[in-house]
Amino acid sequence: MKIALIGYGKMGKEIEQIAIGRGHTIVLTIDIDNPGDLTKENLAKADVAIEFTSPATAVDHYLKCFDAGVSVVSGTTGWLNRRSEVEQSCLDKNGCFLYASNFSLGVNIFFELNKHLAMIMKEFPQYDVELTEVHHTQKLDAPSGTAITIAEDILAINERKTNWTIEKPKSADELYIEPIREGSVPGIHTVKYNSEVDFIEMTHSAYSRKGFAYGAVIAAEFCQGRKGILSMSDLLKF
């Protein structure tokens, strides 16, 4: 498989190592020093683009890839206010798009466990729920896309919560997410159900970026020969 890496920072370099180790070829790398190389002609050399950049640039990257007939796998967060535009463009161009707020296989298992736990806990109003997410100081968005996914899955199930917030909740129907930025932490996400007598806590903690990078490469392989809007749930067959 021929891969274009859009975003060649720490994550891009980790993805490169894993992709080459799995027999793939990197045909294009784009970073802040060569954005002009992201052309239709250069993209056409690739089967798939793996995109990890910033919310300000991600959507433009997706649209260029669709225009070039290249599948897109992206882990950039913070752009979802334009999700319908991106997905419609993908469908109009008969492309393939797989977005995930987190490509770690462990995190995606955590997502499923979170939904199952939320189904159980919605029957026990004596427990209030909140989230904590911890990341390195270079992470641009807060809360993390992973935390938003976790929160929105809870909101879809637990009718006592109507919205999430990173401010101290003003009412019981707000789901509090505490974003913490410290050191070089690759990612810790915790869901906590607290009552007057005890608490139930579930945590996923990443040791390094390797799990995210591996999942992104697996997702790129999954896109081969497929069209439309895909997800990690499709890949993992949840």
Outline the structure in words.
The protein is an alpha/beta fold and 238 residues long. The chain has 2 domains: 2-103 and 210-236, Rossmann fold, CATH 3.40.50.720; 105-205, Dihydrodipicolinate Reductase, domain 2 (2-Layer Sandwich). It contains 8 helices and 11 strands. The strands form 2 sheets. Strands 2-1-3-4-5-11 form a 6-stranded parallel sheet, sandwiched between helices. A 5-stranded mixed sheet has the order 7-8-6-9-10, with helices on one face. It is elongated, with a radius of gyration of 19 Å. The model has no long low-confidence stretch (mean pLDDT 96).
CATH topology of the largest domain: Rossmann fold
Radius of gyration over C-alpha positions, nearest whole angstrom: 19 Å
Secondary-structure element series:
EHEHEHEHEHEHEEEEHEH
Mean pLDDT: 96
Layout of strands and helices, then pairs:
Layout lengths: L1 E5 L3 H12 L3 E6 L9 H4 L4 E4 L3 H13 L3 E4 L8 H10 L3 E4 L5 H17 L6 E8 L9 H13 L5 E3 L8 E8 L6 E7 L4 E7 L4 H14 L4 E3 L1 H5 L2
Parallel strand pairs: 1-2, 1-3, 3-4, 4-5, 5-11, 6-8, 7-8
Antiparallel strand pairs: 6-9, 9-10
